[in-house]
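Researcher: I'm comparing several assemblies side by side, and this is the next one on my list. It has 787 residues spread over two chains. Same procedure as the others: predict the full complex and return the structure.
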Amino acid sequence: MRYLIALVLLVLPGLGWADDWEDQLIFNERADGPRLRVISSTDTVLFAPLIDGFVAKNPNISVEYLVSGTADINQRVRATPDAFDIVVSSAMDLQLKLANDGFALPLEDIETPSWAQWHQSLFAFTTEPAAIVINRAAFEGQDVPQTRQGLIEALRKRPEEFRGRIGTYDVRDSGLGYLFATQDARASETFWRLMEVMGGLDVRLYCCSGEMINDLADGTILVAYNVLGSYAAVRAERKDALEVIFPTDFQTIMMRTALVSRATQQPDAAEAFVQYLVEEKPVVQGSQLSLPPLMSQGESTDHETIGLNPALLTFLDDLKRKKFLSAWENAVIQ
Amino acid sequence: MTTNPNVSGSLRNRLVLTLIGGAAVLAVLLFFAVRNYAAQVAQQGQDNILEASVTSILDAAALRDGVLEVDIPYAAFSMLTTPTDDRVFYAIYQDGVFLSGYEDLRLAAAPAQSDWSFTSGELRGERIRQVSASRTLVGLGRQTEIEVVLGQTQDALSRTLDQISRNAAFLGLGFFLLTAALSFWITSTTIGQLNKLTTSVTRRGPQDLSPFKKPVPREMAPLVMSLNSLMGRLDQSLSQSEDFIAEAAHRVRTPLATVRSYAEATLHRVERKENREALRAMVRAIDESSRAAGQLLDHAMITFRADHLVREDVDLVELIRDLVQRLTPIAEMKELSLSMTGDPTVPYSGDPILIQNAVRNMIDNALKYAPLDSTVEIEINGKPEIKVSDSGPGFLPEEVETLTRRFERGKNAAGTIGSGLGLTIAQDVAIAHGGTLVLTNQPSGGACVILSL
């Protein structure tokens, strides 16, 4: 084994909640230095190269990597802020609210463009678009839709083909799904029409990108809407059956963000870790999977990245969220 | 003659210090004024944005089927973006009951006359600016009041204030430096007027006692006026003393001459030997008095002229020859001869009357001490120097230093007529012309007095 990875799912049976993790790994376990507890929504396989790179540079630090859903991460961090050193999540709005509510430790020494950080305590380190992923077989001989409107038309054209075989996030459970949905709704009314069409076709609702893509890969569903591009691209490369479409009408682009918990016991190690995430571009070896890098907003003008600013708090307001969810349920659950 | 004035303080320093001190006080005032004003403006800016945000949230409130809905516009929080990413807190209350947002953000007691309240406070360990406002909604016969509180930290504001403070400090400093430079300039131009007057007073000729006519600033007019009046009085008293000297010379000499002629006439008529002796002593005493009076007046005249030396171009040789010709009869009476040697012409710029007077005293001296049938030699060279030497007893070496003092006479002068002023006069003339009077003895015997100009 090139690096020290240990599966600890069976190692820590004593902790009741330990079983709840989607995944739990300790990197560089034999290190004699501090152990960083990283709670993250990113699949281990995608995040592992980053941690490997970090522990290679800091051999005395070990990293415990805990994976959970974005909404769950938010709740756990609020409940026990001292249980985690670093919080990594794709749900920018929840992360920003954590920082705004004072759960994040400001790190003055980290230098990053102003659009890629908030309050010097929340740091973006990837740029990932939301995508439509389709099963090529389902569109044999048909035009592949390139826009949401195109998808609506394709679904309406062959409703029986797609009934019960399309999927999207359950925005009630998934923080990232809620972020994508609210940003879509903000950008265009087409989102609501699409939701109504998908609701009419008995859309399957998922908690996470990973499961959605698994179902897509084994043919359970033919179309997945608002899948995380990074996950989809990984699968699409490995399975020719899938095609990843970045809609051309408008793109919703998310930045994965990290923050250091204010209650951390290892502020220096935690800061070093965030510094590494922000600065280092991990070396991708061969077909090794990894997260896309952070892209400057200046590089592309046709799609806009969701901004790290207080406006992200808007849809987290209880009243606003209730209103949005009821509208969404009206459209999707018929 | 010049006595140093009693100096106390300096106008220049006083002016500069006052102006610079004033500038410093003004600069500090300017700094605080600008900073306070800027702080108010910056706070007003933040308040305006918070107000706009609260307004948009209140506008988004509506009663639907009797239930309050608040659809917070995306722009409401988006507009609160600041360069330092200030934290944002908000709370929505319905009739005083918490509905949504941050429950620890309390409603402020709104002032009675206004729906709006702006306060500064602290929340979660940070200073925040807090705005609250309310709106009454009516629907389905029911009336409800929605209150919105919005708070924002002040990092951006304090950074702006820091910048403004720095700029205000630079402004104040610049103002101070400029004013300081200006005050130096003002002071030197003001003092410059005084200096100009001083220069024109200093540059005046010794006998120029006419009033100042050049224009001066109004503030200096009284000074110039006093100066002019002082000079007028001085001019008057100087001419009075000149008149007095001339008058005194006339009044003393004339009666003495009369007394002397009576005494001589009487001497011829008197037969008895003791009477003749007495009259001869009388004539000698009169001669001595007359000579002393003459010398005293000469000395007074010379002192006056030396103080107000007026130089004119003269030829020393011609000047001395003229004098020698006038003295030759006196020398011949004593059976002495005068000889002049030296350069044919020696041009010099000085007071001819003083120089003649000095040399006459030197020759008189020589005539007094020279033995019978000897020659008094007068030599003039281009240094310029006038040397008068005789073949008399010479000076006693220990007396050389003291002989030029007023009324000081040599020990071997007994039996000769003299006042003790002759060499003093010669030395005064030498000093007035910036020269010296040297008393020596010749190697071959006899005194030698050198007047170098």
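Model: For your comparison table: Chain B is about 50% helix and 20% strand.
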